[in-house]
Write a structure and sequence with these properties.
Helix content is 45%, strand content 14%. It has helices spanning 9-22, 36-44, 47-53, 63-70, 74-87, 107-121, 127-134, 136-146, 160-164, 175-180, 191-198, 214-222, 231-243, 268-275, 301-305, 330-334, 355-365, 374-377, 382-394, 398-407, and strands at 61-62, 90-94, 100-104, 154-157, 185-189, 208-213, 227-228, 247-251, 258-262, 284-285, 287-291, 311-314, 317-320, 340-344. The longest helix is centred in the N-terminal third of the chain and has 15 residues, at 107-121.
Length: 411
């Protein structure tokens, strides 16, 4: 790999080490032999910030603990950590007892979305970075990340009208009911559509369509990229997404924390899936589409709505390529004859129990230290996990617990 333009060899080495550190998170940041990761990380982090991130544990800690490991004064560490939090590179939180704590977050489904959206909102985003992230190289990198583990970060759920046309739909696949149960909801712009819009390739679909729930919703509101909305407003966003032909993807757990509405012309993941020979094998979904040839009128609506190119005309009716169908249900909603329905996908499994179960399971599949935590945390909802850390800080037990976890190779 050639040295990234404008970087010294010492700085480039820091970003190579930072990529390796971030690859230690469940979502990963793999070495693909290209300079993509260095380009992205050098645009997001200063060398000082990169060094500090690599000294952090993968649990919430106060600035003083991080400063000790870095060998610098607490206030110097706090200043750098606060700057990183303002940029969206770490999470800053107050769990009680220990004052303010800082938590490193993974590359995708974490720092990338938050930091870039913050930069775009404040007009401080690097234009070159936006072009890189909107391009084909980013799609190929997402594909590499997606293929790291059998368990994925997201799963596809059917749109509202398709749910009515399916049989035996589990509660976790009924997004309108999921939304109705939430006490805290926020919406923020879709980073994929924002990136494509920034490079003059806007598809015309709605941008304000990424929904978060509970703890994640409160965080997005607090950092200024999420807007608090009611359940009625969230349902309206789902209705609009269905009208505009967007695929619904929720975090892969029975504990709903975020829901993306996107399309294969903008979404890095859906763009990557579209390039795969059999997207159905690479996605978690409970359903696949089925067309009744007797009822099909060959209107072509389903063909136009399919984001994966899974539908084609064959004889007197449309047919579904089950290797490409991801079970989103957009074709069902588009059929005026009611000829399309969703049927259970063979081999579909129930999602992981919680957000922590999902990610520690992914870590275990990659033989990462965090995977050893799965038996301990898999049943614990994220809010309760964070609340537990608050108790540990109030009881002055957090530091010895973190020390023990580090000795056991968990963090």
């Amino acid at each position: 790999m050639e040295m990234e333009k404008g970087l010294t060899r010492a700085d480039e080495q820091i970003y190579l080490e930072l990529r390796e550190f971030l690859d230690g998170f469940p979502g990963g940041m793999p070495d693909t032999g290209s300079d993509f990761a260095v380009k992205v990380l050098s645009s997001l982090f200063t060398p000082e910030e990169a060094r500090m991130l690599m000294r952090m544990r993968r649990v919430p800690e106060p600035a003083a603990s991080i400063a000790r490991r870095c060998g610098i004064p607490k206030e110097e560490a706090r200043k750098t950590l606060d700057r990183m939090a303002e940029k969206g590179l770490v999470w800053r939180m107050s769990l009680g007892g220990g004052g303010t704590q800082y938590l490193p977050i993974q590359y995708i489904m974490g720092m990338l979305e938050e930091s870039v959206l913050k930069g775009m909102k404040g007009n401080t985003a690097d234009k070159g970075l936006l072009e890189i992230l909107a391009g084909d190289a980013a799609v190929e990198y997402v594909k590499q990340i997606w293929n790291l583990t059998p368990t994925k970060q997201l799963r596809v759920v059917p749109v509202g009208e398709a749910v009515d046309a399916a049989t035996a739909v589990a509660p976790y696949d009924r997004m309108r009911e999921v939304v109705g149960r939430q006490e805290s909801i926020s919406v923020m712009p879709c980073i994929c559509k924002e990136l494509k819009g920034a490079v003059g390739e806007d598809c015309g679909r709605s941008h304000l369509c990424c929904i978060s729930f509970g703890t994640v919703a409160e965080h997005m509101i607090e950092v200024g990229i999420g807007k608090r909305i009611s359940s009625e407003e969230a349902l309206g966003i789902l209705d609009r997404a269905e009208e505009e032909g967007m695929v619904l993807q929720v975090n892969n757990a029975l504990e709903p924390l975020f829901l993306c509405c996107c399309c294969s012309c903008c979404c890095g993941l859906l763009r990557a899936m579209h390039k795969m020979e059999r997207p159905a094998d690479e996605v978690h979904s409970s359903f696949q589409a089925k067309i009744d040839p007797e009822a099909c009128s060959l209107c072509g609506n389903c063909l136009e709505r399919c984001q994966m190119g899974a539908i084609s005309e064959e004889g007197d009716s449309m047919r579904v390529d089950l290797g490409r169908c991801i079970g989103c249900g957009l074709c069902v909603a588009a059929c005026p004859e009611g000829a399309v329905s969703l049927v259970p996908k063979p081999g579909a499994e129930e999602p992981p129990l919680t957000y922590l179960d999902n990610y520690t399971r992914m870590a275990r599949e990659r033989n990462l230290p965090m995977g050893r935590m799965n038996p301990l945390v898999r049943k614990i909802p994220l809010p309760r996990f964070l609340k537990t850390w608050g108790y540990l800080y109030r009881l002055r037990l957090a530091r010895p617990v973190i020390y023990l976890m580090a000795r056991l190779g968990m963090v």
